[in-house]
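---------- Forwarded message ----------

FYI, see the Thioesterase family protein record below. Original note from H. follows.
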Amino acid sequence: MPTYFTSADGETLTPTKWAGSPWSEKQISGPVVCGAFARALERHVPPDFIPIRLTVDMFSPVLKQPFTVDTEVMRKGSRIVVVDAEIVQDGKPRARAAAVIAAAADDPRGETWHAPVDELLTPPDRTARDGGDVPLFRSGDQDWSTDYLSNQNALRKSVWQDQGHLIEGEESSGFVRAAMVAENTSMVCNWGSEGVGFINSDLTVALSRMPHSADFGLLAIDQLMGRGVAVGSAYLFDRDGAFGIATVSALSNVRRQLDLASLAEEHGWDNRGDAEGGPTPP
């Protein structure tokens, strides 16, 4: 499994080869940025509290060089904690985030309406030995596969993956893993017949609980677009059902549209992940 950063002091994060973005070799990928924010923000989670919402604004590329995540507690009450965070490189803010952290409590009495989510089809169990580090995709009613080419179409997408550990030698929490996988909402919502032509500028993920396993999935809920802007939403789900909803806003990036099928063939993503140190598979 890949690790995306090393950290000698636990604060300064130094990107590894795995942290690279498919959009540019000079910057790190969106899932890695979101994971770094989640790791910093969850340090402010009091006992018996749960992080229930993470919002990340990615308004400037985070460069593939060492950085720290600065945090500030905006509110610390008996039922809710709000924490802001920022990544600054070369004296310039690159991205910001905020987390809402709530006290755990009993559920209210009574029944409520829930949308039926029959499409949450989970893939067979697998291990890293048989390609567990490579994402599984499902388009429409097709079977799960690691084949980018057969999934480059206009059908509804699911992805199932274990993104590995954020920091070398450090176990990633469920919150960190959820943030990293949720950032791929843009990919499952905006991946079409010609690849991915939108790049997301943000992520908001709301969680009813943490994932119950290291590997879990995203299922596209909807995608709306017009005038070069797209918004998309997806369920986060594991083998016990849905546990969160993620939304992204994305901007048209026609000049650098990602042909994922061609990139997968070039870097061998379908078979073994990024063994040669190229961009991280989405």
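H. also flagged this: The chain is about 15% helix and 35% strand.
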